[in-house]
From TrEMBL:
Any single Pfam family the record assigns to this protein: adh_short_C2
GO terms for MF: oxidoreductase activity, acting on CH-OH group of donors
InterPro entries per UniProt: NAD(P)-bd_dom_sf, Sc_DH/Rdtase_CS, SDR_fam
Lineage of the organism: Bacteria, Pseudomonadati, Pseudomonadota, Alphaproteobacteria, Hyphomicrobiales
The keyword Methyltransferase appears for this protein: no
Protein name per the record: SDR family oxidoreductase
Family membership: Belongs to the short-chain dehydrogenases/reductases (SDR) family.
Length: 248
């Protein structure tokens, strides 16, 4: 039984939800972060409790440093931190760069990039042997958009995920001697509500004809890779970026 805590930002839906359930099965005590949908986060906590797991839901907009500090304080009260999954992420409505407002781009970077780095900062302070911690793992959710650039869709989102990739490599090297592994997953087209939140609910299914495997992915297929990275089975994996994309 693993008694260590994992924080999953955006754990109430989609990939984060599947990861929360997968981590609970592996014995982690799960902190389910959510931005606004408390009912969905509570449902994940209840599902984990029904299988004799332990979980709490904590409201945290990762675009807010104060919310992030409160999230980590709640996790501290729950148990020793062993892992962070920087999963929370947003897209924007389909647009060209010459149509984007500064506010949109700033919010995208605040949530997808600054939020991930600030959460990692708090995790390193707790898990690094340099700070008296026992080590741990940080997994960042990137996207194949980082490679494809998402032209005519959301170049700002793609750029934010490119930043996540660079951050993953650099932080991994920075803390490799301190008991912390850092890795990223680049999902392809996954069947979640993120596409609807960008105003294009059919996006994943429409584009799936271009995927070498000719289908969208399931949230569980991403969660499986995250859970593996969090496990000792991935003990020699750090600063790595892994595509889970059906070949896309
Ligand atoms: P999703 O279905 O839209 O779920 C997003 C989750 O993040 C929800 O739990 C949501 O909470 C939370 N969230 C949204 N804004 C937040 C904020 N500002 N602060 C904290 N939490 C926030 O997304 P998903 O498809 O599972 O995506 C998860 C990650 O995978 C993202 O980083 C995304 O970029 C990446 N990804 C997804 C795909 C894909 O095709 N689905 C592909 C590549 C990469 P509420 O429920 O409270 O709103």
């Amino acid at each position: 039984m693993n008694d260590r805590v994992v924080i999953i930002t955006g754990g109430s839906r989609g990939i984060g939800r599947a990861t929360a359930l997968g981590c609970a099965k592996r014995g982690f005590k799960v902190v389910v972060g959510y931005a606004s949908n408390a009912a969905a986060a509570d449902e994940v906590v209840a599902e984990i409790a029904a299988s004799n797991g332990k979980a709490i839901a904590v409201k945290c907009d990762v675009g807010s440093e104060a919310d992030i500090l409160a999230l980590f304080a709640a996790a501290d009260a729950f148990g020793p931190l062993g892992a962070l999954v920087n999963n929370a992420g947003i897209v924007g409505p389909t647009a060209r760069v010459d149509e984007m407002s500064a506010e949109r781009i700033q919010r995208m970077m605040a949530v997808n990039v600054t939020g991930s780095i600030l959460c990692a900062r708090e995790a390193v302070k707790r898990m690094s042997t340099r700070h008296g911690g026992k080590g741990g793992v940080i997994v960042n959710l990137s996207s194949v958009a980082a490679k494809l650039g998402s032209p005519n869709t959301y170049v700002d989102y793609a750029a934010s995920k490119g930043a996540v990739d660079s951050f993953t490599v650099g932080l991994g090297h920075e803390v490799a001697g301190e008991g912390i592994r850092v890795a990223a997953i680049r999902p392809g087209l996954i069947d979640t509500e993120i596409h609807a939140s960008g105003g294009d609910p059919e996006r994943a299914h429409r584009l799936s004809v271009n995927v070498p495997m000719k289908r969208v992915g399931r949230a569980e297929e991403i969660a499986n890779a995250v859970v593996w990275l969090l496990s000792d089975e991935a003990s020699y994996v750090t600063s790595a970026i892994i595509d889970v994309s059906g070949g896309r």
